[in-house]
Design a protein that fits this description.
- The complex is a heterodimer of chains A (495) and B (124).
- With 495 residues, chain A is an alpha+beta fold.
- Chain A has 17 helices and 16 strands.
- In chain A, β15 and β16 (479-484) form a beta hairpin.
- Helices cover 36% and strands 37% of the residues of chain B.
- In chain B, strands 1-2-3-4-5-6 form a six-stranded mixed beta sheet, covered by helices on one side.
- Chain B is globular.
- The two termini of chain B are 24 Å apart.
- The chains are: A alpha+beta (495), B alpha/beta (124).
- The interface between A and B is medium-sized, with 29 and 29 residues.
């Protein structure tokens, strides 16, 4: 049903007035943070969002929701944000004004709302992971974009850099001694050092940004929630953190939407008006353990059973309490009475489980009751150490290693023409060898010249290269050696 | 080629020249608080000249523009909006030449482009 034009006109008038106030408020608050100005901006954005929803201006509603997130992010950093943050926020207000002026439901034409929102999301992400915050009074330095924001490093780029570092290593080894060898030695060590830094990140740099999204989400729902992070400082591989990030996002949204009660409801049952979320992590052996605890109403087990029964998920045999609780991770298993734009479609926790499963992780309900719910997330965490079989290469005092998923055996030298001379293949000085190392895996079988008996040893991967690259640099005790990929070397040698 | 306009401030300068079917706007330095008025005035003139001359394109060369604050940026949003509001036969394209060394340009110019992806392109 089309709304009367006067209602739409009134919405436009009021929204544009508020947007103008937001624009000037933002300009003031970025120069000098003020609680009252911030409160006004929040209120205006929230009001425009609600009004836009009422009159069918969905794009305005969506964009205002993103601007609320953007503003919450800025607030959480006391408005000490990079310059591009300020530019995107200012443009966002103008973008909203542009959408307000358009006829609702009309095609956007050349307006790319999705593209703009993507810029907003990236700005938020960068701001939450920026290593330094810039004081607003340093506007000149701010202007010159001196805030360092880490750029993402793709796996492909990281792999190529690792290959380059390995080539430099080989060159330094081939020269053996002298100033050139020393220079190349410093070069590959510097490259490896940088790669190790780029390939990992700390949990708080990635998960910490959920602080602002929790606040924005809670505000949307009329709730008040504080989130506390207690995370280990050790770097964790970026791929693992990304999977965890997605799972944590879904779990947190679910906790805020379903678990934590509204302030008046909480106070009636003797709880603090403000809900609490605690995200705690620790590294234990080869495992990363993360718990997400809320002090909400807990999972309604009876309703869960009912929902599962409706979907035919309950077995004929009685299910244990933990089995029933595990059903929350099944797709479509929401027990919410209605679907909100936040959750309730039952696609949150199953997405969390899928995200973790892709990296070998898991999630389960550790505890639930009237005082809240605790989720437990587990991920395998490998330190880069592995078991290998190590033999002397016979050139440049290097040792080479083969992973233990290959069956290896040693024999004295033979004249079999299919023996691969790794030193020659890698352009190293000729090896003095009297042995042969055979490596087999399935139907694959290769033989390599070596200079001594093999022995098992733990090695550390210093500079992981792509799986289709023949070698990578490893540490064998205090020495540096090479991890071989027999199949790739065999292909290089046309064996 | 005809130079149409020049502005200069403390640390900011801009010039506009007519190159036949396109206007080329060269921006240099730092567009800070002192550049707000001159830049706004300049872009208003650029729009007017583009319409008067029937220009098909405005090229904004920002490769030497080290910084632009949000107040100055609003003038570009206004320019894009002005171009959108023109009748189709008078509408011009806007090509932004950016410098990848200036981090602020990458995000903000791409965001600006989202106002009118049919009219605005970003090159680096």
């Amino acid at each position: 049903m089309e709304l009367p034009e006067e209602i739409v006109a009134r919405f436009r008038h009021l929204a544009l007035e508020k947007l103008e106030r937001i624009e000037s408020g933002w300009f003031n608050v970025i120069q000098k943070p003020s609680a009252s100005t911030g409160e006004q901006i929040r209120r205006d954005l929230h009001t425009i969002k609600g009004d836009a929803r009422a009159v069918g201006f969905e794009q305005v509603e969506f964009l205002c929701h993103k601007l609320e997130e953007l503003f919450a992010c800025s607030e959480s950093r006391a408005h000490r944000v990079p310059e591009d943050f300020d530019l995107v926020m200012t443009m966002g207000v103008r973008f909203a004004a542009m959408l307000v002026r358009r006829k609702p439901g009309k095609a956007l034409g050349g307006i790319d709302l999705g593209g703009f929102v993507k810029q907003v999301d990236e700005v938020i992400e960068d701001a939450m992971t920026a290593p330094t915050a810039v004081a607003p009074e340093k506007s000149a330095e701010l202007a010159r974009g001196l805030v360092a924001t880490p750029e993402r490093l793709s796996e492909a780029t990281r792999g190529r850099m690792a290959e380059a570092a390995t080539e430099v290593f080989l060159s330094s080894v081939a020269l053996r001694s002298g100033s050139e060898a020393a220079r190349l030695d410093r070069a590959w060590r510097a490259l490896v050092g940088e790669l190790r830094t780029l390939g990992a990140t700390t949990l708080d740099r990635v998960l910490g940004r959920h602080d602002h999204s929790v606040r924005a989400l809670a505000a949307d729902l009329g709730k008040r929630v504080d989130v506390v992070f207690d995370l280990p400082p050790e770097p964790v591989p970026a791929g693992l953190v990304e999977a965890l990030d997605e799972a944590v996002l879904h779990a947190i949204r679910n906790a805020v939407d379903h678990g934590i009660e509204k302030p008046d409801e909480r106070q009636q049952i003797g709880k603090d008006a403000r809900g609490k979320l605690i995200v705690k992590g620790r590294l234990s052996g080869n495992q990363l353990e993360l718990t997400i605890s809320d002090d909400g109403r807990g999972i309604d087990e009876a309703r869960l059973r009912q929902r599962a029964s409706e979907r035919g998920l309950l077995d004929v045999q009685p299910m244990s309490r933990s089995d029933v609780l595990d059903l929350v991770f099944h797709s479509g298993m929401s027990t919410a009475q209605s679907v909100s734009e936040i959750s309730g479609r039952g696609v949150g926790l199953d997405a969390a489980r899928n995200s973790l499963a892709q990296v070998g992780g898991s999630i389960h309900i550790a505890d639930t009751g009237e005082q809240g719910t605790t989720l437990s997330l587990l991920l395998p965490f490998h330190s880069g150490r592995m078991d290998a079989v190590v033999v002397p290469l016979g050139a440049c005092e290097l040792r080479m290693a083969v992973a233990t998923d290959w069956d290896v055996s040693y024999s004295d030298g033979s004249d079999d023409g299919n023996i691969i001379d790794v030193a020659e293949l890698l352009g190293l000085p000729a090896a003095t060898t009297n042995g042969v190392l055979a490596a087999r895996r399935g139907r694959l079988s290769y033989a390599f010249r070596c200079a001594g008996q093999p022995e098992r040893s733990e090695v550390e991967r210093l500079c992981p290269t792509p799986n289709d690259y023949p070698i990578e640099i490893i540490a064998i005790g205090h020495d540096t050696g090479l991890l071989m990929r027999p199949d790739i070397l065999g292909r290089m040698a046309n064996v | 080629m005809q130079e149409l306009m020049q502005v200069a401030g403390d640390e900011f300068s801009g010039s506009v020249r007519d190159e036949g079917e396109k206007l080329v706007v060269d921006l240099r330095g730092n567009a800070d608080m002192h550049a707000i008025d001159p830049l706004e005035h300049m872009l208003e003139r650029v729009h007017a000249d583009a319409v008067r001359l029937g220009s098909k394109e405005i090229v904004m060369d920002m490769r030497e523009l080290e910084f632009m604050n949000s107040s100055c940026f609003k003038s570009f949003v206004t320019l894009v909006h002005s171009a959108q509001e023109l009748e189709e036969e008078k509408r011009y394209k806007i090509r932004l030449l950016s410098n990848p060394d200036y981090h602020w340009q990458k995000r903000s110019l791409n965001a600006l482009r989202c106002f009118a992806v049919d009219l605005v392109t970003v090159e680096s």
